[in-house]
Amino acid sequence: MEKKTALYRMHEALGGKIVPFAGYLLPVQYPKGIIHEHKTVRENVGMFDVSHMGEFTLKGRDALANLNYLLTNSYDTLKDGFARYGIMCYPDGTTVDDLLVYKKHDEDYLIVVNASNCEKDYAWMKEHLFGEVEFKNISDEVSQIALQGPKAEEIVRRFTDRIPAKNYSFIEDVDIKGINVLLSRTGYTGEDGFELYCRNEDVCALWQLLLDEGVEPCGLGARDTLRLEAAMPLYGHELSDRIKPTESNLSFFIKFTKDFIGKEELEKELTRKRIGLKVIDKGIAREHCPVFCNGREVGFVTSGTFSPTLNCAVAMAIVDIDAAEENEFEIEVRNRRLKAEKVALPFYKRNK
Question: DSSP string spanning 195-252?
C-alpha cells in the first residue's frame, strides 16, 4: 500500500490529481495542467511536495572515508554548509542510486536519496559501512518542499534574510514564521530555487504560508518535463542497475584519483553514451522506444516528452558509441519510425 505525505489532504483540497509514485500517493498535476505549471516555474515560481525523498544521517570519525568509498564523487573538499551531488555504484559499475550529500560540519552529513530507492540504498550503505560511524534513516521524520523558479528568492526574502547565496549551499535552523527549516539552494528543474526541509508536523503550515504568498503548487508531471529539458538524470531512466554513470555522461562526478565501489569497471572504455534528440516528425518518443541510425538499431530512449519551453518533442537516449557521433536518427513509436536529429544537452539552460 502506498504511503501519503503529510501534505496529502492539502493536495486533495487543491484539486490535485493523485497518482501512485515511488511508493507514495502524490499529485501528478493540479486543475490548470502540466504545461501551465511548467511555464509557471520557468517564468515565475512554483512549489512541489517532494517529501517522498529519503533522508539519512551519517555521523562519526569515519563518515568522510565512508562517503568517499561509497560514492564516485570526492567529498574531501566539501565545505560546511554546502551540498554535493554523488553517484553510488555496484561493483560492476552500474548504479545503485544518485543522491545529494549535505555537509553540516566535520563528522556530520545529511544524505538525500531517491524515494523509490530509499530502503535499498539504506541497506546497501549499511552493509558497506566501516569504522566509527552512526547511520540512521530519518526519512519518516522529514518533509520537503521545493520552491523553484526565477522569483523563488523574492518569495523566500519575504520570510527571512538568511538565504544561501551560492548554488548547492544551505543554511540550517532558518526561522520561517516560527517553523525551523533547513534552507538549501538546490533543485531539480534547471531554474534557481530552494528546497526547504522541516518536520512533518510543520510542513502544512509552511505550504500554507507559500500559498498565501501566491505561490502555485505543481505536480510530478511538470517536475519531470522541467528536469528533462534541463537534461537532469532520473534514476530508472538515465541511471539504473543496467546503466553506468559514465554511459550517461556523468564522468564529471567521478573522481578516479580515489578508490570507490565500481571504480575498476568505470575506468573501462565506453561502448555507449547518452545523447539528446529533437523529434522532427509528429509524435512523442517515450522511454524504451528503440532508436535507429542508418537503418540499424543503435540504442533506446531513456526519457522523452513534449517540451513546453521549446515547443517540440525531445528525448534523451543511450546509443552505441559509434552512432553517438551521427546527427540523423529514427525513433520507433507505435510501429512508426519518427525522424529525429541530435541536439546538444541540456535542451534548456536558464539565463543566470
Answer: EEEEEHHHHHHHHHHHHHTTPEE--HHHHHHHHHHTT---BTTTBBTTB-TTTTT-GG
Q: Burial-class residue 225 by CB neighbours within 10 Å (0-12, 13-18, 19+).
A: buried
What's the pLDDT at 1? Answer: 87
CA atoms within 13 A on the CB side of 2: 15
| 3-class SS of residue 39 | helix
Residue 68 and residue 75 in contact, taking contact as beta carbons nearer than 8 Å? yes
Q: Determine how β-strand 312-320 pairs with β-strand 108-113.
A: unpaired
User: CA 294, 297, 302: angle at the middle one, nearest 5?
Assistant: 120
Strand pairing report for 82-89 and 54-59 = unpaired
pLDDT band at 312 (very low <50, low <70, confident <90, very high): very high
Question: Do 224 and 238 touch, CB atoms closer than 8 A?
Answer: no
Confidence at residue 351, expressed as pLDDT on a 0 to 100 scale:
84
Count CB atoms within 10 A of the CB of residue 176: 20
Quote the CA–CA distance of 173 and 185 in Å, as a whole number. Answer: 14
Domains (ranges, CATH) in the chain?
3-54+140-229 (3.30.1360.120), 61-132 (3.30.70.1400), 269-343 (2.40.30.110)
Q: How far apart are CA 15 and CA 32, in angstroms?
A: 10
Instruction: Tell me the one-letter amino acid at 269.
Output: E
Grid cell, residue 331, equals: 525513433
- pTM attached to this predicted model: 0.97
Q: Give CA–CA dist 335/232, Å, rounded.
A: 28
- Grid cell locating 297: 538499431
Cα–Cα distance for residue pair 167/198, rounded to 1 Å: 20
Beta bridge partners of 170: 184
Alpha-helical segments (H) within the chain? 8-13, 34-43, 63-70, 118-128, 152-156, 200-212, 220-229, 263-266
**Nearest of 213, 75, 223 to residue 144 by alpha carbon:** 223
Confirm if 215 and 155 have CB atoms less than 8 A apart: yes
Burial of 257 by CB count in 10 Å (0-12 exposed, 13-18 middle, 19+ buried)? Answer: exposed
